[in-house]
Amino acid sequence: MKFLKSIVVVSIVTFISRLLGFIRDCLIAQLFGASLVTDAFFMAFKIPNFLRRIFAEGAFTQVFLPILVEYKKRKGCKYTKEFISNILGLMILILIVLNGIGMIIAPTIISIIAPGFVNNLEKFNLSVSLLRIIFPYIFFISLVSLASSVLNTWNYFLVPAFSPILLNISIITTLVFFSPFFYAPIFSLAWGVFIGGVLQLLYQVFYLNKVKILIFPCINFQDTRLWYFINKLIPVIIGISACQISSIINTIFSSLVISGSISWIYYADRIMEFPSGILGISLSTVLLPALSKISSKSLQHNYSKLLDWGIRFCLIFSVPSTVFLSILSKPIIIVLFQYGNFSINDTNMTQKALFAYSIGLIAILLVKVLSSAFYSKKDIKTPMKISLYVILITQLFNILLIYFFQYLGLALSISLAAWVNVFFLFYYLYKKNMFCPEPGWIKFFWNLFIATLVMVLIILGLLKIMPDWSIGCMTYRILRLTGLCFIASCGYLITLILSGFDLLFFYKKVDKLVNC
Q: H helices within 259-380, ranges in order?
């Protein structure tokens, strides 16, 4: 069960990272609440994250990793390392230029993505200052992404999964111990991000050297492999940019509505990232190399079976996660954030955004699985085409929903657009004969429905006997919430097994496909 073991290991490490992320966000909420300074920080932090998702973890990984897997299998290590060296040299050159330009035009960037800040000079200047500190993070995290792809190709999944923990530790440390030394304590968060990026890169370089795959940069523009990679990369950048531009447009809208909206959406999004990160990142991290490996062997039937397995695995965990977030949205926010400067009003506003986000959780996770199918076959144009459809639809939703629901409409539009994305991905998978569902889906859905229904009844029953969630310290609240989730989860899994779903066979099945 090596494949499943890899998913479990990555999931556990990602869980620790997300847990530290929650501790970080709890501290931010207690110290700053949902205020002018948090709006400024979250806006500044959004820019390097926007670029990271496009160039680093997004387009780069999805194109680079399948090519890397193929070269390593068919051309050998020496040939593959020469290719990595060339890509590394080009990436460093581009990132240096990008960072220099970004820091110079920081005021222009803030003016474009947060027009609502222009009339508030204090918020605008603070956002610009924070952005200039945070911007170099894109340099470090992009190189970390390259190192992660190399390590994943050589089956070292644990090291890249552990890397984000260093970022959270850095931010927490600077916030707790060094914020009093800044004239505006919010600057400690920006420097925490900067230092975290440096630590992540140094950590991965250490392990690349340890496993003897540390490669030094070299640019050769006459290398055909470099131009092959660039030709594959450009359409993916366009496609992923479409999704990220949609996110930026959401940010522009949120800067124009009531103050605090950016923070409420951020806190709701952070809670959403807990299940989507643990399951989505873990599954896509391991699934993409596995699908690429099977695709390189031209084993289409096994390829379709593995994709079928990935979709079912995703649903087994995403369906109960959606139920937890929708029913327990308010208790979760009270337990995690309602302390200090984070008011009851902030809780109510964040809860509405979280509920809107939860509608699209299953779709968001399915997108990660289904898009891996296209990238593993180096089909770049189809996801790009779908992304362009989705950005247009998202903006139509934005215009319509923000009029009726203000900031809440922005979260809702993302959820609805995710389902549209899933529809198009499934449509093209069938059209290209890349996926044929395995037998037993009706029974699978029935088992899932019964288990989810039992879980809902358990949650509702326990909520009736629970005291008010605002009672007690954070530890006491977390223990109550954890206990409720544990009992409900046990009820879900036991019901799933009793309804006839063979979990053991389901888990063993995947290794036969991957190691064929």
A: 261-275, 282-296, 300-327, 329-337, 344-358, 361-376
